[in-house]
Amino acid sequence: MALDRWIALIFVGMCCAYGYAAFFTMDQLLPPFMQRNPVWPSTFPKVLAVAGIIVGLVVVLGLEKQSDEKEPSATDINYRRLQDYNTGQAIGLLVLMVAYALALRPVGFIAATTLFLIVGSFLLGERKFHVMIPVSAVATFIVWYLVQEVLGIFLRPWPFFLA
């Protein structure tokens, strides 16, 4: 089985676990007045789980492939040549995302997000620091302002020792 089908099979498994949680465990603790609502807090997770299972099964069963295509195209993933792809960048971005999630609370939203955007763009090949730093700082401040002031959701902007 090809690499894309293995990945889709893992995706279907994750969607099944997510769907089980959405269908059988999320609605048990709802208060009685919410049980009469047409839309519950688990409605969107249920839709996501079913859609994910359908899309994953389409890939696992090979329904998205055209039957007249015998030779793999240049855009297909060749699992025998994984070393030719930019797996280092992908793994670096995954590690950076985990570090961002762990640093978000102690470092603060503005510093953590600005550093995440700068280091992430550096990992992807951008070397113009005179562009990266102001763009990431302005984008971070705009997102913080919209979430904090417009939506009214508190985001700790600075490190814990400055608050």
From TrEMBL:
The chain crosses the membrane at residues 7-24, 44-63, 84-101, 107-124, 131-155. Pfam families: TctB (PF07331). Residues 6-155 form the DUF1468 domain. InterPro entries: DUF1468. Keywords: Membrane, Transmembrane, Transmembrane helix. This is Tripartite tricarboxylate transporter TctB family protein.
